[in-house]
Amino acid sequence: MNIAFNIQPLLSDTKTGIGYAEERLVKALIAQNPSDTFFFEFFSQFEKNAGKVNLYLKENVRTSVCAFLHWKLYRFISALFPLPYRWFFRTKADVAHFFNFIVPPGVRGKKIVTIHDLAFRRFPETVRVKTKYMFKWSLAKAIKRADRIIAVSEWTKQEILRFYRYPTERIEVVYNGVDASVYRTEFDTRDIERVRERRRIPKNYILYLGTIEPRKNLERLIKAYSLLKRKRPDSPALVLAGKKGWRYERIIQAYEESAARESIVWTGYVTEEEKPFLLAGAVFFCFPSLYEGFGMPILEAFACGTPVLTANNSSLAEVAGDAACFVDALSIQDIYDKLEQMCINRNVRADLRQKGLERVKQFSWERSAEKLRGIYEAAFKEGES
């Protein structure tokens, strides 16, 4: 088959979970299917990172570039006027996969779209107004245009069916994975120390890793951590690692008002190279989100042998199974109680560590790519019949 990807998410300097997921699935698909031809399509106007595409090129990979238009400008224009995507990319694709909620008008081949979550529908107050309406409009169009929808969890599939009319048999669940060569337990402690010292992180720390935004529930986490430090001053530091997203002001306010702020460390954006070392060095990983379509950092923590505390909502229980300590994300008291339990009880942490290492074996990018390739083939054959 000829399979096309819009690779705009791969070109960012600060890739988020969507970019990482596309990168790993695309790499696995290319490696597993040498007889297929893969086309990388992207808009390069004002794209300072266009050269990054060279990192992914193999014998069965071709590039198709629109050099005179910016991706965001194309999206804006096509929102007003359905400017066919095929005018800019002459690729004769059998299947075109878009990983970032959007299916442009006029795409060649069978159209596949990945939907990662519907947070803007469930928690609209956590999203900027402009972003909310952009998602609402573009996703409604994408669902109408898509021949198949990929949901990253069973939870996300049910969310799609709750908010949109779409044939359930055309929604496929393809889990995210974890790269066992990157996220692992065998690290040189000196490498962990170097990353920790570079980021000015104390030796003992609780780690949050993700975007700094309301959906991640960091305001309650900071307040719960403040209670912990008041009762147990010797508790580990709290490290908040990640770039700022939208509407983070109240999170910063909670930090500034916290009596424990001297024990809270902000790292800013963390590179992909640093992430496994930070996870491996943590006492435990804390991910108390209000809502997640999948929750990839949970698997990464499991793979590093790091115990996990997470929320009991959305997809998080589906992904974590019985391998995490669960909290009520809306209860500061419960978050505090579980933080304390995780800090003082080594046996609980040791048990969760072993369960996490077993749980993560069920997820791999290679397995997910195999399933995805089967979905492409089914959609393509449907078009031939």
Description:
This protein is an alpha/beta fold and 385 residues long. The protein has 2 domains: 2-177 and 364-384, Glycogen Phosphorylase B (Rossmann fold, 3-Layer(aba) Sandwich); 189-362, Glycogen Phosphorylase B (Rossmann fold), CATH 3.40.50.2000. The protein contains 14 helices and 13 strands. The chain has helices at residues 17-32, 71-80, 119-122, 129-145, 154-163, 189-198, 218-231, 249-257, 275-281, 296-303, 316-320, 332-344, 346-359, 365-384, and strands at residues 2-6, 37-43, 61-66, 95-98, 110-115, 148-151, 171-173, 205-209, 237-241, 264-268, 284-287, 308-311, 325-327.
> What is the end-to-end distance?
16 Å
How helix-rich are the residues, as a percent range? 40-55%
**Quaternary state of the chains:** single chain
Strand content: 15-25%
Give average pLDDT, whole number. 94
Low-confidence runs of at least 5 consecutive residues: none
Overall CATH class of the largest domain = Alpha Beta
From the 3D structure, determine the CATH topology of the largest domain. Answer: Rossmann fold
Q: Helix/strand-derived class?
A: alpha/beta
> What kind of sheet is the major sheet?
7 strands, parallel
Basic shape = globular
Q: Whole-number radius of gyration?
A: 21 Å
Q: Give the domain tally.
A: 2
Topology:
Blueprint: E1 2-6, H1 17-32, E2 37-43, E3 61-66, H2 71-80, E4 95-98, E5 110-115, H3 119-122, H4 129-145, E6 148-151, H5 154-163, E7 171-173, H6 189-198, E8 205-209, H7 218-231, E9 237-241, H8 249-257, E10 264-268, H9 275-281, E11 284-287, H10 296-303, E12 308-311, H11 316-320, E13 325-327, H12 332-344, H13 346-359, H14 365-384
Parallel strand pairs: 1-2, 1-4, 2-3, 4-5, 5-6, 6-7, 8-9, 8-11, 9-10, 11-12, 12-13
